[in-house]
Design goal:
By secondary structure, this protein is an alpha+beta fold. The chain contains three helices and nine strands, in the order H-H-H-E-E-E-E-E-E-E-E-E.
């Protein structure tokens, strides 16, 4: 006859709570396993890291940073580094030569405030040809007059004078600065 339908709201709420508790327990166990494996495994050495990532680390890099210095100390150290690598260049920007074989008034000066010997080369801007290269110029020394390495016909040539700081022991270039100059050959 009549069917009696009974709703069991207490039972439904209990089922939801059980499902949520089981889901929470599974997440907690997963997080625990993850954390344990991370804490137990040791960090990679530089060599292992190189092998796994393909990154080539700089051999001159050392551990540590700026975190133990005040802002004033950081600024002072950075200014020292900048001054160490600074290249002061000085020369006649319009050297004049009587002819393509003659010496001209180049007046190349390696100022005494520089830290390294310099080598200077003149490169023509129109052709890329190197027309002059000095040997090493000691700090505090100058070349007043020099002949070009290439005999140029009469005319004016825009060039770039490249000043290279040289390692005093190996002679390798460790820094470069350039300036535009105009070389004039009269005859």
């Amino acid at each position: 006859m009549y069917e009696v339908y009974q709703d069991h709201p207490k039972q439904a709420r209990l089922n939801i709570r059980v499902v949520l508790a089981v889901a929470f327990l599974v997440c907690a166990i997963g997080a625990g396993i993850f954390l344990i494996t991370r804490l137990v495994s040791k960090p990679l050495t530089k060599e292992d890291a190189r092998g796994q990532t393909g990154i080539v680390y700089d051999s001159s890099a050392v551990e540590g940073g700026w975190d133990n210095l005040s802002p004033e100390e950081i600024a002072e150290k950075l200014n020292e580094k900048v001054a160490e690598g600074m290249i002061n260049i000085s020369m006649n920007t319009a050297p004049y030569f009587e002819d393509g074989k003659a010496e001209g008034n180049v007046m190349i000066v390696n100022e005494s405030i520089n830290n390294y010997p310099q080598q200077v080369e003149f490169i023509r801007n129109d052709t890329g040809e190197q027309v002059y290269q000095s040997n090493a110029i000691p700090v505090g020394s100058k070349i007043e007059r020099a002949a070009l390495d290439v005999e140029l016909p009469a005319g004016t040539y825009e060039c770039t004078a490249m000043f290279h700081n040289l390692d005093p022991v190996s002679g390798e270039v460790i820094g470069t600065a350039g300036a535009i100059i105009n070389i004039t050959i009269k005859n």
